[in-house]
Amino acid sequence: MPRLLAIETSCDECSAAVLERTPRFVAARSNVIFSQIDLHRRFGGVVPEVASRNHLEMVTPVVEEALEKAGVGFNDLDAVAVTQRPGLIGALLVGVSTAKAIAYALNKPLVGVNHLEGHLHSVFIDGQQGCERLGPQNLPLLACLVSGGHTNLYLIRELPPRGLGAEKLSESRDDAAGEAFDKTAKLLGLPYPGGVHLDRGAKSGNPAAIDFPRALPGRKNMEFSFSGLKTAVATELKKRGFEPYGVGASWGTQPDPAKLPQGKELADFCASIQEAIVQTLLRKIRIALGETGARGLAVVGGVSANSRFRELLATDVKVPVFFPDHQYCTDNAAMIGAAGIFMLERGEVLKGAELLAANAFSS
Ligand code: KG4
Ligand code: ZN
Fold first, then answer.
1. Which of 95, 134, 166, 215 could disulfide-link to 7, CB 3.0 to 4.6 Å?
2. Which atom of ligand 1 is nearest to the CA of 150?
3. What number does the ligand 1 atom closest to the CA of 274 have?
4. Residues 48 and 178 placed together within one structural domain of the fold
5. Closest CA to 188 of 94, 253, 261
6. Per-residue pLDDT tens over the stretch 153-183
7. pLDDT digit string (tens) for 113-135?
8. Are residue 102 and residue 199 in the same domain, yes or no?
């Protein structure tokens, strides 16, 4: 069965994984992720140049660790897969150059993977609870990709090893759902990236405490819009006498607890913001399920790790729901290798001169 090394450096995670084709779909023999979050936190967001420089330092040790954990060497590989687009161009270039060098030196093909295709393939990695039942009976499959950069609904018509035949049904007109989590969390003075902190903070809060807007409520509208939420949260903070953090603040200033909600009030903000985002996602998912007659739902990308989202999806959706394990929700090389291994099987690879000419693309 084919085996490949996969590399992902599109944003602030430096990751490498070893994947093997299995009779069902694909198995991850290792999935090493070095997150740069600590490096970017003091800037309140990802600084592209800092990201590229760190990828350059980390990519070799991360690749070595992925091979070691899988118990294989370079010569045991049949191909190298890498995220080619979309992402931060300097960050992508580190992964693409590394993958090209390894593939060329080994005289093996290179597989250039689209990051979004990678997220969509995260539910097909073997051994994940729940995903083991995903099969032809779930086609067509509705896929909801919710990350820091995207909020897209797709209709998937085919299963791997075929191409998914994914048709994009809708996207966000402005901010992505993860971006909405991160930006509103920042206004509350929570650390970057805010999604997971908002999720935690919401646990002791009342989701009905503050009525934040849920945009584009049309009965058949599958599009998303989250940019208004930032303004609504900032306005509510000001109305209560607080100073939204980061608005007009110069770099390096720490959030001042005296100027921001604390305790139960903070928890209520977190729970109400999370509810507005998650209920909007759910409403659009229900519309898309109705419009397409999909027989299953896959929810992928960083925001699919959200606990309230998972809780509501388990009770409010009538079709079987599939989530990746947490390690495959946020950016990781295993999902890139999962998409890549099926591309390899279909012969969608780069060799020789084509391999040497392979580039990275920001969009
Ligand atoms: O898929 P991902 O790692 O990167 C992109 O491709 O964008 O997603 C990162 C996003 C961030 O916005 C982060 O705040 C969000 O996923 N996220 C969460 C949670 N964990 C990660 N959002 C809400 N609740 C979570 N538990
Ligand atoms: Zn991603």
1. 95
2. 7
3. 23
4. no
5. 261
6. 999 999 999 999 999 999 999 999 999 999 9
7. 999 999 999 999 999 999 999 99
8. no
